[in-house]
């Protein structure tokens, strides 16, 4: 296995990643000021910030599987930043809706959140992200204790699902893109489920008494009769 | 409610001939100025825009709106034409593959004289008018577009519709070689109108916009425009018009019957199940504006729906 990066190397990697994560934001800002976002710039910004929120959620959820598959444990140390960027783009997405789209029309926003299922779901996902962002620091981990902190942060699985449903319910007919994102999420969550099941079986096997040497094997499932 | 039927009175009947012809000359000149203006807005070299065939002379219509027109560039780069892709920019990028000549439109079904019209014949079938209409998309955005065409009724009268013809079905072009193959909608895209809607003077058989032939992404070479209904009712690139006795199925209605009704009249009081229809964003504007009943054409069309529950017949 390769050696993990030194503290200095890790700092450099983090700085580079930080800049990289800001590239979509910078590109949209540039296009906004160049008037290059097409006929409906508010829609373009809303869609773009939504797309990048979903992408950063999936990237964040990919860290653990990637770590397990590659053995590069230090990847875990990038996860907090990626998750916070998911929150950053989600905040932009929500601000775009709140400000540019609805122009602070609280009554209309409240109506939307209550009556439009895709907005209800998207808003819920955003609200659920807030405690995760707030507790993304060492102080909160110490304060909560690792176990409680971890179970809180497992809500990101639900947030991922809500985000896909939000996208799926908003498209008119062409579900190709939400389906692709949904399949990626299913794979990322499926891997976790699979690993957890493997772990459970290993623990059961470890706790079971070993079969007696020379003992008879009794099939637990009857063989189906042949026809 | 009073129904305005200005198309029944020709401008030549109410204006002295010399004056009328003088005005025509003015209109042609104005059309050219307009086209030049559009070319400048679009930021394209004049030669590039001159390649599109000009239509004219164009009569002015009392149905035209005097609101600021949506720039040519927005009208031709922000489109819903799913056969060429489901993103707004896709049609402008992909519709160039559509061969708009030769092109014919069959007008058939419950007609005394069904026949096929060549596109060149259609261009000369009736005096071309400029109709500046509001367009309200079901997605809650809107535009103001100077279309060119003539009332669909002028075409339908040519085939002598039978009394049993209660509806009109529009069948549009579908060529899997150049269009989307994924069954996002049930291709070919079809749409429909009730006979009285189809014969209404506002319903425009449309051959151009901004004084020129239709760009492919806007439904070339011939489409309908039904300004008091959501945009998807206005079928593009039409190859057949059928006179039928039963309400035809339509593409969006088949895709989601609870979301897209047969009538689909613009109605701020009946929300789409997934978003509000109370307001809209006019392309080019920042703040949303209230959506008008029948897209502001209530005076002309409300009487068509008297006694109907527009919540049920949405």
From TrEMBL, chain A:
Q: Where in the cell is it found?
A: Cell membrane; Membrane
Keyword annotations? Cell membrane, Electron transport, Flavoprotein, FMN, Heme, Iron, Membrane, Metal-binding, Transmembrane, Transmembrane helix, Transport
What protein family does this chain belong to?
Answer: Belongs to the MsrQ family.
Q: Which InterPro entries match?
A: Fe3_Rdtase_TM_dom, MsrQ-like
UniProt domain Ferric oxidoreductase: residue ranges: 52-163
Instruction: Relay the cofactor remark from the entry.
Output: Binds 1 FMN per subunit. Binds 1 heme b (iron(II)-protoporphyrin IX) group per subunit.
Is Transport among this UniProt entry's keywords? yes
This molecule's function is given as: Part of the MsrPQ system that repairs oxidized periplasmic proteins containing methionine sulfoxide residues (Met-O), using respiratory chain electrons. Thus protects these proteins from oxidative-stress damage caused by reactive species of oxygen and chlorine generated by the host defense mechanisms. MsrPQ is essential for the maintenance of envelope integrity under bleach stress, rescuing a wide series of structurally unrelated periplasmic proteins from methionine oxidation.
Q: What is its main location?
A: membrane
Transmembrane stretches, start-end: 12-32, 52-69, 81-100, 120-140, 152-169, 175-195
Q: What is this protein called?
A: Protein-methionine-sulfoxide reductase heme-binding subunit MsrQ
Kindly list any coiled-coil regions of this protein: none
* HAMAP family attached to this UniProt entry: MsrQ
What is the organism field in this record?
Aromatoleum toluolicum
**Which cofactors does the annotated protein need, by name?**
FMN; heme b
TrEMBL record, chain B:
Which Gene Ontology terms cover its molecular function?
oxidoreductase activity
The Swiss-Prot or TrEMBL record lists the needed cofactor(s) as: Mo-molybdopterin
Q: Which residues form the Oxidoreductase molybdopterin-binding domain?
A: 101-252
Q: Which residues bind Mo-molybdopterin?
A: 79, 82-83, 137, 172, 218, 223, 234-236
The note describing how and how many cofactors are bound reads: Binds 1 Mo-molybdopterin (Mo-MPT) cofactor per subunit.
Q: Which reaction does it catalyse?
A: L-methionyl-[protein] + a quinone + H2O = L-methionyl-(S)-S-oxide-[protein] + a quinol; L-methionyl-[protein] + a quinone + H2O = L-methionyl-(R)-S-oxide-[protein] + a quinol
Report the Gene3D superfamilies cross-referenced here. Oxidoreductase, molybdopterin-binding domain
Q: Provide the E.C. number(s) assigned to this enzyme.
A: 1.8.5.-
Q: What does the record note on quaternary structure?
A: Heterodimer of a catalytic subunit (MsrP) and a heme-binding subunit (MsrQ).
Family that this chain belongs to:
Belongs to the MsrP family.
The free-text function statement in the UniProt record for this protein reads:
Part of the MsrPQ system that repairs oxidized periplasmic proteins containing methionine sulfoxide residues (Met-O), using respiratory chain electrons. Thus protects these proteins from oxidative-stress damage caused by reactive species of oxygen and chlorine generated by the host defense mechanisms. MsrPQ is essential for the maintenance of envelope integrity under bleach stress, rescuing a wide series of structurally unrelated periplasmic proteins from methionine oxidation.
Can you name this protein? Protein-methionine-sulfoxide reductase catalytic subunit MsrP
Which source organism?
A: Aromatoleum toluolicum
């Amino acid at each position: 296995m390769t050696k993990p990066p030194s503290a200095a190397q890790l700092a450099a990697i983090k700085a580079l990643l930080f800049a990289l994560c800001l590239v979509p934001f910078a590109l949209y800002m540039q296009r906004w000021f160049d008037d290059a976002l097409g006929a409906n710039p508010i829609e373009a910004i809303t869609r773009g910030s939504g797309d990048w929120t979903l992408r950063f959620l999936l990237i964040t959820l990919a860290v653990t599987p990637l770590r397990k598959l590659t053995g590069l444990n230090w990847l875990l140390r990038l996860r907090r930043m990626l998750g916070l960027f998911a929150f950053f783009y989600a905040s932009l997405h929500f601000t775009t809706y709140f400000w540019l789209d609805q122009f602070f029309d609280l009554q209309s926003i409240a109506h939307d959140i209550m009556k439009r299922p895709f907005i209800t779901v998207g808003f819920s996902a955003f609200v659920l992200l807030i405690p995760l962002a707030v507790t993304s620091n060492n102080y909160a981990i110490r304060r909560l204790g690792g176990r409680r902190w971890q179970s809180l942060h497992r809500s990101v699985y639900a947030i991922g699902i809500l985000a896909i449903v939000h996208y799926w319910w908003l498209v008119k007919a062409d579900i190709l893109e939400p389906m692709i994102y949904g399949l990626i999420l299913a794979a990322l969550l499926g891997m976790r489920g699979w690993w957890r099941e493997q772990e459970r079986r290993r623990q059961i096997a470890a706790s079971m008494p070993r079969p007696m040497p020379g003992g008879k094997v009794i099939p637990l499932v009857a063989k189906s009769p042949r026809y | 409610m009073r129904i305005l039927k200005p198309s029944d009175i020709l401008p030549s009947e109410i204006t002295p001939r010399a004056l009328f012809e003088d005005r025509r000359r003015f209109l042609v000149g104005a059309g050219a100025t307009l086209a030049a203006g559009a070319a400048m807005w679009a930021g394209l070299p004049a030669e590039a825009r001159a390649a599109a065939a000009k239509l004219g002379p164009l009569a002015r219509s009392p149905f035209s709106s005097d609101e600021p027109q949506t720039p040519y560039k927005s009208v031709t780069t922000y489109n819903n034409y799913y056969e060429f892709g489901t993103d707004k920019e896709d049609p402008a990028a992909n519709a160039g593959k559509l061969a708009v000549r030769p092109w014919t439109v069959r007008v058939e079904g419950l007609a005394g004289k069904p026949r096929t019209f060549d596109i060149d014949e259609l261009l000369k079938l009736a005096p071309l008018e400029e109709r500046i209409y509001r367009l309200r998309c079901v997605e809650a955005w809107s535009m103001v577009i100077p279309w060119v065409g003539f009332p669909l009724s002028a075409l339908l009268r040519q085939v002598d519709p039978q009394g049993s013809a209660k509806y009109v079905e529009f069948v549009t072009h579908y060529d899997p070689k150049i269009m989307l193959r994924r069954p996002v909608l049930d291709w070919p895209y079809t749409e429909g109108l009730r006979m009285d809607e189809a014969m209404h003077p506002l319903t425009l058989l449309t051959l151009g916009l901004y004084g020129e032939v239709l760009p492919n992404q806007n439904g070339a070479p011939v489409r309908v425009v039904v300004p008091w209904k959501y945009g998807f009712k206005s079928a593009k690139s039409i190859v057949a018009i059928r006179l039928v006795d039963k309400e035809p199925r339509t593409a969006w209605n088949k895709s989601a019957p609870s979301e897209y009704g047969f009538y689909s009249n613009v109605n701020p009081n009946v929300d789409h199940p997934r978003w509000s229809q109370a307001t809209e964003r006019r392309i080019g504007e920042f703040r949303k504006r209230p959506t008008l009943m029948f897209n502001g054409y209530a005076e002309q069309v409300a009487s068509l729906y008297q006694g109907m529950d527009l919540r049920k017949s949405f």
